[in-house]
């Protein structure tokens, strides 16, 4: 642009900031503001709001509030997008009381809550497994004439699943169907994870089949949740468990889905509880493992290393599952 004699504007810099934030390069995005100052271009509310969204994704509420204050101090316009970014930071960090304070300020500014605002709040309570707060917000949403969408219902289902209230989760599924809202891939994956958490892999398997009958193609997250659920009960060795594992393995292989090494170690450890010397299930499962699985290092891994790896994988899976189904960035 510069070589062509075009002078970058604030909109140009904002596009750069947005691109960096979407790539989770928040430090570089913040650095663009310094370049804008050197170029004599003043950041606007969109610049700061995008930066806030980057910090919100990381749950950094302190930094999000810092840039929210910058918008105020520089006399820029506070809009619903700015408040949404701040709410995301509050909810992602679990600071729900701070989130409620932000909504009170929105009310004071006579800024109505839209679907996105309600969804962010409901998702925040869902992360904590607070079914009643999530349900109350949905009820308030309806009273305000704001219609729940697929994200709203999925977040409420997520709250039920985290609380272990699968009966309530299924009630919400029926409610959304009556409202004409069809469950999507994330809805079904959330339910599968909920049934797995409730130690009912047969229900998880049934939900998986319903998802396919609805015309939805399972993704890696759905397969992962279901397989982990089945393997967690592999010691039971019931027929539906074994046939389910074989069926899912076949589907994954047909869809060229290969798990990472950490997941392979975790799944292998679970399966060894019933097939200590290998067998049909082990052979089928290993077809979903990365090619390096048969390396000397894997076979030489002792039980202590397996336990350490398994613990790390469990932590990673908890984090990944939270990102996949606990967030409203559908």
TrEMBL record:
Span of domain PROP1-like PPR: 83-227
Keywords on record: Repeat
One Pfam family here: PPR_2
PPR repeat spans: 9-43, 44-78, 79-113, 114-148, 149-183, 184-218
Coiled-coil ranges from the UniProt annotation: none
Keyword Repeat (UniProt): yes
Recorded superkingdom: Eukaryota
Database matches in InterPro entries: PPR-containing_protein, PPR_rpt, PROP1-like_PPR_dom, TPR-like_helical_dom_sf
PANTHER family in the record: MEMBRANE-ASSOCIATED SALT-INDUCIBLE PROTEIN-LIKE, OS04G0684500 PROTEIN
The family this protein is said to belong to: Belongs to the PPR family. P subfamily.
Protein name as catalogued: PROP1-like PPR domain-containing protein
């Amino acid at each position: 642009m510069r070589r062509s004699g075009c002078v970058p504007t604030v909109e140009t810099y904002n596009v750069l900031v947005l691109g960096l934030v979407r790539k989770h390069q928040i430090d570089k995005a913040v650095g663009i503001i310094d370049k804008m100052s050197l170029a004599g271009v003043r950041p606007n509310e969109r610049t700061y709001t995008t930066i806030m969204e980057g910090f919100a994704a990381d749950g950094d509420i302190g930094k999000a509030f810092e840039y929210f204050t910058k918008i105020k101090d520089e006399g820029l316009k506070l809009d619903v997008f700015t408040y949404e970014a701040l709410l995301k930071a509050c909810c992602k960090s679990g600071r729900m009381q701070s989130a409620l304070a932000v909504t009170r300020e929105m009310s004071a500014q006579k800024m109505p809550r839209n679907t996105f605002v309600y969804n962010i709040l409901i998702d925040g309570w869902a992360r904590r497994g607070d079914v009643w707060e999530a349900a109350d917000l949905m009820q308030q949403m309806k009273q305000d004439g704001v219609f729940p969408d697929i994200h709203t219902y999925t977040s409420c289902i997520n709250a039920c699943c985290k609380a272990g209230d699968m009966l309530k989760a299924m009630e919400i599924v029926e409610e959304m169907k009556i409202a004409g809202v069809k469950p999507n891939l994330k809805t079904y994956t959330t339910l599968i994870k909920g049934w797995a958490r409730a130690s009912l892999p047969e229900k998880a398997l049934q939900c998986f089949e319903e998802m396919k009958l609805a015309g939805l193609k399972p993704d890696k997250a759905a397969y992962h949740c279901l397989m982990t659920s089945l393997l967690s009960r592999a010691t039971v060795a019931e027929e539906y468990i074994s046939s389910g594992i074989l069926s899912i393995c076949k589907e994954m292989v047909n869809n060229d889905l290969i798990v990472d090494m950490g997941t392979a170690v975790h799944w292998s450890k679970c399966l060894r509880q019933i097939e200590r010397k290998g067998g049909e299930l082990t052979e089928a499962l290993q077809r979903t493992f990365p090619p390096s699985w048969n390396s000397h290092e894997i076979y030489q891994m002792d039980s202590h290393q397996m336990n350490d790896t398994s613990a790390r994988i469990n932590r990673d899976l908890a984090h990944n599952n939270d990102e996949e189904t606990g967030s409203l960035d559908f």
